[in-house]
Each structure stands twice: as C-alpha cells, then as structure tokens.
Design goal:
- This protein has 832 residues and is an alpha/beta fold.
- Helix content is 44%, strand content 13%.
- It contains 27 helices and 23 strands.
- The protein has an eight-stranded parallel sheet with strand order 10-17-16-15-14-11-12-13, sandwiched between helices. Strands 3-2-1-4-5-6-9 form a seven-stranded parallel sheet, sandwiched between helices. Strands 20-19-18-21-22-23 form a six-stranded parallel sheet, with helices on both faces.
- Helix 4 packs parallel to helix 6, helix 21 (655-669) runs parallel beside helix 22 and helix 22 (693-721) packs parallel to helix 23.
- The radius of gyration is 38 Å and the shape is elongated.
- It starts with a helix and ends with a helix.
- 47% of the residues are buried.
C-alpha cells in the first residue's frame, strides 16, 4: 500500500483538474461514479458537474455512456475534458484495479467514489429464484424476463461496490469520501426481490465496516437509502410485484406510501403523498461529496419521504435456555454447517439431547468423515446423521434434503450456520483478497439463499405436522478480528429472514401453501464466554421445538450471560423441577378422568411424557384432557394437542377393552414406558355373607385381573426396549404387608386391593432388572369423592350407612314399613 501511495503522489503532476472557478460545492474535486448512465446516475452526474466537479463516468456499455455524456455536456456547458468515460466490468476486480490505476496515473487524484451501479436481480419469490443458468433459462422459457441468477445479483449488487472500494481506497486522500447507494427496501419485506435486497443489506453493513477501517486515514464512508423514485419504472416494478403476490393492482404502492410520514407540496402548494425524485438523491450525493459533510461518516441518509423503516430488527437474550419443556422427540431437524465440524456437532448434540433426529449437513466429504469419527455409540449420538451439503454445489443441498420430501421423514426445523468458520475471513474489508470476496459472495450469501430456497420448497410440498416450521440462522463465535465479515453476513441474513417470513405468510394467506415458515437469527460473536455456544444452541432449540415466534429478527447473545440472566452457566435445569423429567416417555393410565389418575396424567404430561388416558365416562375424561392440553400449550410444548390422547367407554373388567387400549397406545405413540394401573370400582358394598359370586368376580376382574392383563401385554414390549415402569394403585384398605385392615362391607374391594400389592411383590421377582414395578396404597384422598358433590353423599357418609348395625336396623325399618303398608299389621302391633 505504501508503494501505491508513492506512485500516486508522483503521478499528480501528469494531469491537473480544471482550475477552481469558486462557484460550486464540488469545485476542484475528481469524482468517480458507477452506473452513471442510469436514471439516478445521470442526475447525479449532472449535479456533480453543475457543482464544479471533474467526472469519471464508469460503466460496461460504451454506447450508453457516450450518449449520456453528450447530454450532460450539452446541459451543463462543461468542457469535454471535464467528463471522462471508464469502460470496464466492475464485477471483475482485475478490470477495476487496472482502470483505476491507469486513471490515477493520468489524472493524479481521486476525491469522491460513488457506488451507484447495480442491477435488478431476479424478480422471483424465494422458492423460485434461479441458482444457475439452466434454471434461469427455464424461467425465461416459461415467459419470465429475468436475466440474472442469484450469483449474478450478488456480484452485480455487492461485488461491484466492494471491488470499487478496495481498488480506490488506497488512492483516496484525507478528506476523500466513498458514497454507497443502497435502497430502503434492503430493510423491508420486499416481496419477490430477495436476490436484490439481500446483497443491498450486506452493502449497508459493509459501508459501516469500511467507515471504521478508513476513518483513521481521514476517509469518510456513508450510505444513501433511496426510497421509490418517481418514474415510470417504479410504477412498472410495483405493478409486476402485485402480479407476483397475487394482489390487487396498487396494493404494493399503497403498502409503500403508507410507510411515508412526509407529504410534499405540489405545484399549487398542497401537501401531497408522492415519491422522492432523482434530484432528491442527487442533492444528497452532492452534500456528502462536499466539505460541508466533513463530520459525517458511517451514517445512513434516507431519501424516502420519511418511510418508517427500522435500522435493524434486533433484541438481546435476557434469559437462559431452560430446556425442561423443550421436546423434539419424533421430530427431525436439519443443521446446515460448513467446515466448522466441532461447533456443528455440539449444536447437533443439543438438538439430539432434546430427542430430535438431526440431519447434519457438512461442506465436504472430509467434514462428514470427521463427524462420523467423532460420534460415539450412544443413543444421543445415534440420532445425528452427517451428510454432505456443499452450498457451492446446489445439487448436494437437494440430495441432503431428499428424505425430507417423504412425509413420514420430513424436516420440522433447521439451523443454518455460516459455511466457513470464524478463521476464514480475517483481513480488513477494504483490503480483502479477490478470493475472499468471491468466496463470501458465493458460499455465504448465495449459499444461504440456496439452502433457504430448498427448505422453503420442502415445506411448501411437505409441511411438518403440528407446527409451522422454524429456522434459525446461527452465527459463528468471535473471530478475534472485529467480526467484520460476520456483521456483513448478519445484515444480509436479517433481510433474507425478513423477506422469507413475509413471503411465506402471504403465500399461506392466499392458500398457496399450508405452513408459514418462521425465521430468526442468533448472533453469538457478541459473547466470548465458554458458555456462549451451549447458550445459543439451547436458545435455538427453544425456537425450534416450541411455538415461540419472536418478532425481532436478530437475537443477540449478551456479552455476559451471568449479568443478563443471573445464571453462572448456560445450564438447562433438567432437574430444577418436574418439567422435562419425562421427555420422550409414553404413559398409559387407566382411570385417568379424575382423582389420582388424572393428576398422574397431568404431571407426567407436564414432565414431557406423551400420555394415553382412558376411563368409562367420556365427559370427565374429555375435560381432563382439555385441561392438560391447555397447560402444555401455555408452557410451550410442541404440538400440545398430540401429546395427550383420551379413550372413553373403557371398562377395565372387559378384556377386549384392555386390548383395545394397548393397541391404540402403540398405534399412537409406538411404545409404552409407563403403565399406571389406576382404574377400579368401589365393589358391591355388601356384607360378605350377602355378596354374590358374580359381584366378587366383577370386583376382582376390574381391580385385580385387569392389572395383570395389562402387565402381561406390556412387559414383553418393555423388555425389548430395555426399560419400563409399572405402578399399581392399591389402597390402604387393602392392608399393610402383614396386617389386615378391616373395611366394613367392602371385603371384595379390600381383597382386590390386597391382591394388587401381592401381585406387585410377586412379579417384581420376575420382570426385572429392566422393568421396575411398584404399588402405592393411598388412604382417603381429599377430593370430590371424599367430600361428596352434586348432592351426593361423601365417601364416609356412604360408608357409615353400610356398617353392620346400621344396615340391619335399616332392613328392619324397611320391613315394618312394608308390612304396615300391606295391611299385615298395624304400626302399634309392629312396634310391640
């Protein structure tokens, strides 16, 4: 760089700009302008010339530039030597350097660089953007008029400005300035223009990085954000967008003008809503190029009539990722990484630890093999499947997601990392190599759009059940060099996320697809603590496996997790409470409509288990299920409706009903981890000598034989899985281990409950060690049955009437009444 400055200084004598005339704000300045022959560019050219500048008009089309040059010379009356043409392709860094070096050799100086050139990019929604020439030709064959692929747009919109900044920065003197012309739509949901707004958003962040790098040398860098510019072209653009969106004519125009806060007076002085003009943009350029703006750098100047558009959609995490209610069991997620295998594996393990299967896309075969070698033979790691996903080869993305197009093997969410690790880009942006710029444009920007497009296509065809798909772009950690490129990528991905969200929502609204993709990004390079990666991985899991929708697109990791959350580590609190204790488990509970069974169902479901509850009556059973589902939804469990299933009209004394319940549980959830034998009946409520044999059989069938029947059905299943738990809900009135507890007029009930305890003790010797079996023996449990409800007597009141003495007195009283009524005796005779 020092050699280049020396050569530049010696070259100044070779040509000197026109002497100062002292009449313009840009008098004596040499200005280089790209896109000089375009609509805005020609107006900027004219105003620069009118303000006294020497102008270097840059472009690829010599004929177009020459025509514009003739018009300018005629309109401004400047001499021909004051307006030069530089013909080169600014997307080719070699051509840019050669042209700039040759110009500096001739002219000797450069004061202002205006990056105005650009292109429209493919005007297609995300699912249709062309990634290569064959896709572009297919669009054109079907009547489209696009001329660029996504890669072309990255090169022509961001690459051009970056190339000019790198080539001209060494030649700019203190007081020099670079002006980048972006667009306000780089911060909006600009439907169907994702390939245009994403590189423009990246340019916004690049401008700020260049300002920081070049500021110590006295060089200023600012950005202009034009809004819609009054012209026939903008009317055509908005009309085409209405068609693309399937909206009524004028819809896009109305959306845009509704954001404007300024009405400008018309020719009659009446405030009117209208678009800014090319002259408005040109006047802003003149100001920024002049010495009057000497205090401004790293600023954005909006020429939009005050459009209400945020600079950045951001927030910072203030809580730690408690994963107790985060359950990915039965779900499949795609983690798209690149060459950062270690970080990708740690992120994938957090997801598999939540129960999800992880399709881990890595950028090379070497990365895939490294991941396979690092994975252990554990249940958690067996849920991680490394596959090749090289974003520079778009077919590998399609191949990686091939199985996601099968409904039974779909993708429910995705985490997308940068393609390169934090070690890849280290130089200052103003000194980046051609290779770094090309790799960044292709793999990071174009590659991110390619992955997003394929996911959007998958979900349009095969949306996940139970929830809309969620996507998290997750940044690299701190690169130790200011995270310059990471911030440029951050800005681009925010715009990608914003437009992706907006397009998906509109497509769902008009019935083109069933699921609305929800996208966020998490920035973790703001935190350098060891807990930063598990913290952000856990937050990503919370976004993927719950119903959370955080409106802020970009979510920053706090610089200090301790200060922000109060937690010393980014722990997930697995044992802090009941929540999450039973993730991935399946419980079958009889008698689940109320009381002990209902509460067990509720607590197991809150703990993460999927629960099958059954009972005889439908009313209470449905109410219990609805209450549990409501709680699960409030907490944030994924697809709460599917987590609790109820089967009514189940009499546990009926063997056929028991088989139905087991089969339904297996069909719904695939296995049984917990069997809770809670259902039972009160029994005949007769003296032993008065009970019939059928009453004894009914009580024992419902309270005891049903337990064994269900145990016999699920034990083989549990043994094959290697674990299981069985609980028989007995009763205190079934007696303690060596003590019988008399229960008046409830002998059948007491014997059945004692049998449950004995059954448990005997089977415990044979079902282990894989399966645990226990019995609990509650005493009277406070509740409706104990207290009585709806005019019915409570438990103790009813039992009091069954005590022997009371029962016999009641029988005598009934006999006397019936005898008197039958005329067999008088009341007095009966009492005698």
């Amino acid at each position: 760089m020092a050699e280049r400055r020396t050569r530049t200084t010696s070259a100044r004598a070779k040509r000197t700009p026109a002497p100062s005339r002292g009449i313009g704000r840009l008098e004596g300045k040499v200005i280089l302008l790209t896109g000089a022959a375009g609509n805005i560019g020609e107006m900027i050219s004219r105003r620069c010339l009118e303000e006294g500048a020497t102008l270097l008009m840059c472009g690829r089309n010599k004929e177009k530039l020459e025509t514009a040059r003739r018009r300018l010379l005629s309109a401004t009356k400047r001499r021909a030597a004051d307006v030069e043409m530089l013909i080169f392709d600014a997307g080719d860094p070699g051509q840019v350097r050669a042209a700039i070096d040759e110009t500096i050799t001739r002219i000797g100086r450069l004061d202002v660089v205006i990056n105005n050139a650009g292109s429209a990019g493919p005007k297609q929604p995300l699912m249709s953007v062309p990634l290569d020439r064959s896709e572009l030709e297919e669009l054109r064959a079907n009547g489209g008029d696009d001329t660029e692929t996504v890669g072309d747009a990255m090169r022509n919109l961001l690459g051009v400005a970056w190339n000019l900044a790198r080539a001209t920065a060494p030649h700019l003197r203190p007081g020099g300035t670079i002006i980048n012309v972006s667009t306000i739509f780089s911060r909006t949901e600009y439907y169907g223009r994702i390939a245009y707004t994403v590189p423009k958003a990246a340019l916004n962040a690049l401008s700020r990085q260049l300002a920081r790098e070049l500021g110590p040398r006295g060089i200023r860098v600012n950005t202009i954000f034009p809004g819609p510019i009054a012209s026939e072209r903008i009317d055509r653009v908005f009309a085409a967008m209405d068609t693309l969106r399937g909206a009524e004519p004028g819809h896009t125009r109305d959306d845009v003008t509704a954001l404007m806060t300024l009405q400008r007076p018309d020719d009659d002085g009446v405030p009117t809503t209208r678009y800014p003009t090319t002259a408005d943009v040109a006047e802003t350029v003149v100001f920024l190029g002049s010495d009057a703006s000497g205090a401004f750098t790293a600023h954005g100047f909006e020429v939009t009539h005050g459009m209400a558009v945020r600079q950045e959609s951001r927030s910072t995490w203030l809580s730690r990722p408690e994963l107790r209610t985060v359950d990915g069991t039965g779900l499949r997620v795609f983690v798209a990484a690149g060459d950062q295998v270690a970080d990708a594996l740690e992120i994938a393990r957090v997801q598999s630890g939540c129960g999800a299967e992880v399709l881990l896309g890595l950028g090379s075969e070497e990365g895939v093999q490294a991941a396979l070698h690092a994975l252990a033979d554990t249940e958690q790691d067996r849920r991680i499947i490394p596959v090749l996903c090289d974003r520079r080869r778009h077919s590998t993305i399609t191949d990686a997601l091939h199985h996601a197009r099968q409904p039974e093997r779909g993708i429910h969410g995705a985490i997308i990392l940068p393609f390169f690790g934090p070690w890849r880009f280290r130089d200052a942006c103003s000194e980046a190599s051609d290779r770094d710029v090309a790799s960044f444009l292709e793999a990071e920007l174009g590659g991110s759009i390619a992955v997003a497009r394929e996911l959007a296509r998958v979900w349009a065809d095969h949306p996940p059940s139970g929830s809309d798909p969620h996507v998290v772009f997750l940044s690299n950690g701190d690169d130790g060099h200011g995270n310059r490129y990471a911030d440029v990528l951050r800005a681009a991905l925010e715009e990608l996320s914003r437009v992706w969200r907006g397009e998906a929502a509109e497509q769902v609204a008009r019935g083109d697809r069933d699921a609305a993709d929800w996208v966020n990004q998490i920035v973790r390079w703001t935190n350098t603590e060891p807990e930063g990666l598990p913290f952000t991985s856990g937050q990503a899991a919370r976004l993927l496996y719950t119903q959370r929708r955080i409106n802020s697109v970009t979510l920053y990791t706090p610089p200090s997790i301790v200060d922000a959350t109060g937690a010393r580590k980014a722990t997930f609190g697995w044992m802090e409470s009941l929540l999450g204790l039973h993730l991935g488990k399946v419980a079958l509970i009889t008698g689940g409509s109320a009381g002990i069974g209902g509460q067990l169902a509720r607590l197991l479901a809150l703990g993460g288990a999927r629960v099958m509850i059954c009972a005889r009556g439908a009313g209470q059973l449905t109410e219990m299920r609805d209450r549990i589902v409501s709680e699960l939804t409030d907490i944030g469990y994924y697809d709460a409706e599917s987590r609790v299933t109820a089967i009514a009209d189940v009499d546990v004394a009926d063997e056929g009903a028991l088989r139905q319940v087991v089969d339904a549980t297996l069909a719904r959830y695939g296995h049984v981890d917990y069997l809770i034998n809670n259902a039972g009946i009160a029994g005949a409520e007769q003296m032993v000598v008065d009970m019939t044999l059928d009453e004894w059989r009914n009580t024992l069938s419902a309270n005891l034989l049903s337990n064994y029947s269900l145990i016999e059905k699920v034990v083989p299943l549990m043994k094959r899985r290697g674990s299981g738990y069985i609980l028989n809900v007995s009763s205190y009135f079934g007696g303690e281990k060596f003590i019988a507890v008399p229960y008046p007029n409830r002998a059948d009930y007491a014997v059945s409950k004692a049998g449950q305890r004995a059954l448990t003790e005997n089977l415990a010797e044979f079902v282990g060690p894989e399966i645990q079996i226990n019995a609990i023996a509650p005493g009277p449990v406070d509740g409706d049955r104990l207290r009585g409800t709806g005019g019915k007597a409570g438990l103790f009141s009813r039992r009091g009437r069954l005590i022997l003495e009371n029962r016999r007195l009641n029988a005598i009283h009934t006999g006397i009444v019936e005898a008197v009524r039958a005329g067999l005796c008088t009341a007095a005779e009966a009492l005698d």
